[in-house]
């Protein structure tokens, strides 16, 4: 097994996700998530067209019930909601409702609100980058034709990757340790996801790759990576199954990123 081929780190990732999803904090997070509506594919497209960085959307009153408040002047995101009537009178179940049409209703993303902190299982990393890993990851990005820019990103976004622009952006206000992990994540997107059909799978692969890279380089990212992967996958069982199915892709992407580190050490 080479230094860049680390199946033990993938196993550590799946074990950590399994343990996380048995905690009270995970249950609290799920309870919070259950308050959000499940949107149809069409509405997901509408949301993405109007607010590409939206992550969690809900109505004005729903945000108030969660003790968060839409900021004055924020522009609504419009989605389609069904209009129904009760087919057999008032005392009927939802199954007896008939859809007679649709209407546009306004919703807002969490980035458009202020208020109480939301439950999270993804804790941003604290700490420095004493080994200068970020600078070496910049060199990896350059070697595959991507520029990396510091940016102030809205909505709690840590980074993004554009294949069209051959550009990666990293949130400038985060700690050096978090920025290093985020750059590893966006490099995985650059390597793996020029095109993709499943956003959830793409995020799982990118963060799994970032975890392997960070662990191999001595950066502990479990506080962020375990929750991120489990959330995008929809729970421990789905996450573990998808990690196993994508294991080769994750390992190869991690090896590509890590090769420059190990080749430099050999040359030294």
Properties at a glance:
2 domains; 3-stranded mixed beta sheet; 10 helices; 8 strands; 17% strand; globular; alpha+beta
Give an overview in words.
Helix 5 (133-143) packs parallel to helix 6. This protein starts with 6 loop residues before the first helix and ends with a helix. It folds into two domains: 7-32 and 122-267, no CATH class; 38-115, no CATH class. The chain is α+β, with helices and mostly antiparallel strands. The strands form three sheets. It has a three-stranded antiparallel β-sheet. A three-stranded mixed β-sheet has the order 6-8-7, covered by helices on one side. It has ten helices and eight strands. The protein has helices at residues 7-20, 24-33, 41-50, 60-65, 133-143, 176-192, 199-216, 222-233, 236-245, 247-267; strands at residues 57-58, 68-70, 77-86, 97-109, 113-115, 147-151, 159-162, 167-171. A hairpin with a 4-residue loop joins strand 7 and strand 8.
Topology:
Layout: H1 7-20, H2 24-33, H3 41-50, E1 57-58, H4 60-65, E2 68-70, E3 77-86, E4 97-109, E5 113-115, H5 133-143, E6 147-151, E7 159-162, E8 167-171, H6 176-192, H7 199-216, H8 222-233, H9 236-245, H10 247-267
Parallel strand pairs: 6-8
Antiparallel strand pairs: 1-4, 2-5, 3-4, 7-8
Helix pairs in contact: 1-8, 1-9, 5-6, 6-7, 6-10, 7-8, 7-10, 8-9
């Amino acid at each position: 097994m080479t230094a860049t081929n680390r199946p033990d780190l993938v196993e550590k990732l799946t074990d950590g996700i399994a343990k996380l999803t048995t905690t009270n904090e995970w249950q609290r997070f799920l309870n919070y998530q259950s308050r959000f509506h499940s949107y149809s594919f069409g509405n997901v497209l509408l949301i993405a067209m109007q607010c590409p960085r939206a992550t969690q959307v809900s109505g004005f009153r729903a945000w108030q019930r969660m003790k968060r408040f839409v900021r004055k002047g924020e522009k609504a995101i419009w989605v389609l909601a069904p209009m129904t009537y009760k087919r057999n009178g008032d005392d009927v179940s939802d199954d007896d409702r008939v859809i007679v049409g649709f209407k546009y209703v306004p919703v807002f993303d969490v980035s458009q609100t202020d208020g109480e902190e939301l439950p999270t299982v993804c804790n941003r990393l604290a700490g420095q980058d004493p080994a200068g890993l970020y600078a070496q990851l910049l060199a990896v990005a350059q070697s595959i034709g991507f520029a990396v820019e510091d940016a102030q990103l809205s909505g709690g976004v840590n980074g993004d990757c554009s294949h069209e622009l051959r550009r990666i952006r990293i949130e400038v206000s985060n700690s050096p340790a978090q920025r290093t992990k985020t750059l590893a994540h966006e490099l995985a997107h650059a390597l793996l996801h020029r095109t993709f059909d499943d956003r959830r799978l793409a995020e799982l692969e990118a963060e799994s790759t970032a975890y392997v890279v960070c662990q191999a380089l001595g950066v502990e990212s479990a506080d962020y990576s375990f929750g991120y992967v489990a959330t995008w996958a929809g729970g421990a069982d789905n996450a573990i199954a998808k990690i196993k199915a994508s294991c080769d892709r994750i390992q190869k992407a991690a090896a590509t990123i890590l090769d420059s580190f190990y080749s430099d050490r050999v040359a030294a």
